[in-house]
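Exercise (ungraded).
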Amino acid sequence: MGYLIIEQMLNGLQYGLMLFLLAAGLTLVFGIMDLINLAHGSLYMIGAFLAATFFQMLGSFFPALLLAIVATAFIGFILERLLYRKLQTMSHLSQVLATFALILIANESIKIIFGAQPLMISMPSGLSRAIEIVPDELYYPAYRLLIIGVGFAVAIGLYLLVNKTRTGMWMRAGASNREMAAVMGVRIKPLFTLVFVLGAALCALAGALLGPLLAVTIGMGESILIPAFQVIVIGGIGSMRGALIGSLLVGMIDTVGKLLLVLGLGFITDPTNAGTLGSTLASLSISVLMVAVLYFRPQGLFPARG
Amino acid sequence: MMNRFGPSHVKNTPLNTGLPNPWSAILVAVLLVTFPLAMSYMGEDFYIGMGSRILIMALAATALNLALGYGGMISLGHAAFLGIGGYTVAILAKAGLVSALLVFPLAILMASFAAFLIGLISLRTKGVYFIMITLAFAEVFYYLAISLPNFGGDDGLPLRTRSSVPGIRLDNALTFYFFVLLLSGLAIVLMYRLVSSRFGRAVVAIRENEKRMAAIGYPVYRIQLMAFTLSGGLAGLAGALLANLNMSVTPHMLDWHQSGILIVMVILGGSGYFWGGLTGAALFLILEEVIADHTEHWNLFLGAMLLFIVLAAPNGVMSLRDRVLGLFNRSGSNADSKGSSEQEVNK
């Protein structure tokens, strides 16, 4: 029982860290440019599809992962130059429409290129077994541990980048007050290109890593977009720390909260009912958390703007 | 300055662009009444159903136009109100209640109530936050619809019969069309009264300059909340009609794509213009019908068209019309630019 909860906590950690990979890029794009990007999930989908394709061509996981990241970053670069640079100066409504259009185009293009069937990526062979964490009691898949490890490594890397480097200082300055940062000599446009490309690369990393666990399908981007939005609203737009803590909160509620709810409801109703009701309530409680945060702290838990 | 003394020098203030011309109303009414009769005469029942769909989506888009176009509240969650209206009808039908006189007001009430609650919290925020929050709220209802077994889950709920109205049989396509026309006509009249009223002017003025309106003493938050609630209620009515048209409700109705499509319709038809919702819904659905006939990649076309619109006409399609008219109207005041009213007054 206790181990079940620990296992779910590890799952929550894994989900939360993958959410963080998306939310990190998204929150900086929102924060620095005040730009709403609905198509962030599409980059995640494109990354996953590219990883699956490279995997089929090369037959090995890690080179495919790297290639997918580079290719998606390049696509992000092109998109930023052609479209997002123009969108920055436009109204929020235009941004919603244009990025909604990008989603439609991305989904349909993927369908034309790869077909409507989901693609599969298999795990690297050495990692497909379970690791014994507590002898005879707790086994956990090695691959998921790898994801957790990579997630933490990226989080630490981003922390160092944002808090310890000059570029990171520009990012923080841009997120807290764009005009003032520009006046003080920060070159906002190249900075935004960098942030956008970095965000695209992180999307591809998340998409490729989750590929072996979930099927690579059209529309996978939208299913993770909404939680990523909730994370950003909870954490505060433009805040890296907020994105991390928000991601972990949402990840934990989604898995551990679901388990506890299902177990708790099991005392009241029959198990099948408890299962569906529990997962519904868990999804709802994330929204309730978001509403509560907004009500008491409209700027999020860790606002980037002073 | 020839038209200085004509009506045109006040025509294009932000407060006036959204008001309809009475002749256009007569034209629209004649068109909407003769179309199904002609189709029925030619035996094209399919196009009557299509007409009903256009009217229903026009109602939903008009509802969104009230919040988005007139009020400047970019709601990415209006599909939720559509869905709530539809599900109310379907769930009551499952319980044996099919009288439209009872079911439709309840659908409107439920959707308005949801809009009131969502507006209560969302309207405390601005800009990007408002968009994301309306989206997140709509997802809550989507999850509810998809995961609660009583709501039919993924498959949704079928309707055994259409709602019953005393003295009319709605299973006939033509009768149903006129039923839809009657209700959406009433809603449009209500909408007309609303936007031409003091309240409607206040809603538009808040869109234009919220701080000034607050300083003059208007209860900005309360007015926006009222407009948002009304908008949600109208969308709920559209949802109730849509459930009757399709004879079923599915979670797809509340998908956020649907919210996106509604925004697209409003922009296509002209955000903040009275006939924007109707024009946009008709354009969208007809385009979809025509293009989907030739290719299965309609979404690709739609996406490309949207991108073009955003980049070529960032203020919506109607701004293109204004710009074209502006070309002919060079000698007069530059009527297409916002703020021209102030220049005029200062002269």
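Further reading is listed at the end of the chapter. For now, observe: Chain B has 16 helices and two strands. The interface with chain A takes residues 68, 74, 76, 121, 124-125, 127-129, 131-133, 135-137, 139-140, 143-144, 147-149, 256-257, 260, 263-264, 267, 271, 297, 299-300, 302-307, 309-311, 314 of chain B (CB under 8 Å).
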